[in-house]
């Protein structure tokens, strides 16, 4: 029998299922209407809440806690369900500070940074490091907008109170291209660091996939 490790798909799936059950229990013990005010979610009635996540409207049906895409009814990946529930239950309603922080300034970031760099930063550099303006075109497909940091930057609303800004600096003869992701300093009042890492990885994946690489465009 093959020994399972913490990174094995079966163990990972079990972890997601446990996290989802815990998040559902936490939501059941929450004043949902109050949390909608804090998070910017839309309280429809006692049985329906609408949460916008990465430019898509998600319907959270209560009390059984079913989550689907509002327009299509399509099933939502389990990891995204967990993140949506965390946002809905943990949001404190803290106003934006206007002060930006990087991932390394988030609570407990050290254990999450290697994966963040591998899944969120490295693919951005690989795809847009030499063509940074293409990142703006890609961001518009996620409802993003151009920002004013670095050489090229875009801001994407992960949730109503969670803007994430991706910044690229062009390389030159002395320095290679570099990138970073910036968050308002209030972001720990809305999401845990692990969820922020996963959202950033999702944003990067969507940005990269929306603009084919030169080799794919030539086919």
Low-confidence stretches: none
- Helical fraction equals 25-40%
Q: What is the tally of helical segments? A: 7
- What is the total tally of β strands? 9
Provide the β-strand percentage band: 15-25%
**Coarse shape:** globular
- Main sheet properties: 5 strands, antiparallel
Task: Please give the radius of gyration in angstroms.
Answer: 18 Å
Q: What is the CA–CA distance across the termini?
A: 43 Å
Order of helices and strands: HHEEEEHEHHEEEEHH
Structural class: alpha+beta
Strand order of the largest sheet: 5-9-8-7-6
What is the domain tally? 2
Average residue-wise pLDDT:
92
Task: Give a structural overview.
The chain folds into 2 domains: 9-90, no CATH class; 100-217. The chain is 40% helix and 22% strand. The chain contains 7 helices and 9 strands, in the order ααββββαβααββββαα. It has helices spanning 9-28, 32-39, 78-90, 113-128, 133-140, 193-210, 214-217, and strands at 42-45, 48-53, 56-61, 66-69, 100-102, 145-146, 152-159, 162-169, 178-184. The strands form 2 sheets. It has a 5-stranded antiparallel β-sheet with strand order 5-9-8-7-6. It has a 4-stranded antiparallel β-sheet with strand order 1-2-3-4, with helices on one face. Helix 1 (9-28) runs parallel beside helix 3 (78-90), helix 2 crosses helix 3 (78-90) and helix 4 (113-128) runs parallel beside helix 6 (193-210). The model has no long low-confidence stretch (mean pLDDT 92).
